[in-house]
Model the fold of this input.
Amino acid sequence: MPKKTTTKNKTALVTGGAGFIGSHLVDRLIAEGFKVAVVDDLTNGRREYLNPQAHFYKISITDPKLGVVFAAEKPNVVFHLAAHIDARVSVQDPIHDAEVNVHGSLRVLKQCLKHGVKKLVFSSSGGAIYHDTKKFPTPETEAPSPLTPYGVSKLAFEYYLETARHHYGLEYVALRYANVYGPRQDQKGEGGVIGVFCKMLKDGKPPKIFGDGKQTRDFVYVGDVVNANMKAMRAKESGAFHIATGKETTVKTVASLIAKAFGWKGIFGRGATPVGDVRRSCLSPRLAKKKLGWQAKVMIHDGVERTVAWFRSR
Done:
């Protein structure tokens, strides 16, 4: 049975460690003196984001050889971020989504149990797990209502983690992210709208707003998300927690902030509202503050400026 969480043996394994959030987390772990191993097949990740001090394994979490990495590195904490992240594609190909997000995640879990990992921190989803909710900001007590295979797969692995805690004593934290944005962001994932706007403006193209632009999202900065992972690693709690600001921002507002940061004064393009698009999305971060000692610190104005500065420097 895994022992109580400790960071004395500062060895961490990060799946998806070459990706948007994962690479920032790897940088932070190394800065704090951790020995870090990265597992990433580079489907979403990029070599240029890899910290050179990390031990890199180009391998998928679905690969049966994943155990070789665990045996070699002997991590005491695992941050599981690797995933199939495109919710819309998951609707078209739910089998592939499940192969990565369920089957692949179970391979990670199996190796954690086999090699005595003391804590598993899982990057889950708040935006995809809740669809039909009337309470805002939405608390963790709200019944999950995923409407995409991606949301279903994220929620399913949370349940698998709870069974592992019950039967084997594995400590875990599932972090249900709101719409994450920041430097190194691509155009996929739940906070992808900011990446899309930045990329289009950088290329001199007018960004397109789908619908009336009044749909809201809870945008949380990647640096705050990294802090949440570090807090989760050290917390005594197990369970699911929202990582969010608890504040709603309209898509139109965030588009205007990005345009202003780029110095762009054109007219936004318009597009039809995507089928199944959620009108409002906002998560309550109160439980994370109470149990993990975490809260978001970067406000949307500052976060957008930092993100735009990164895109412009590319």
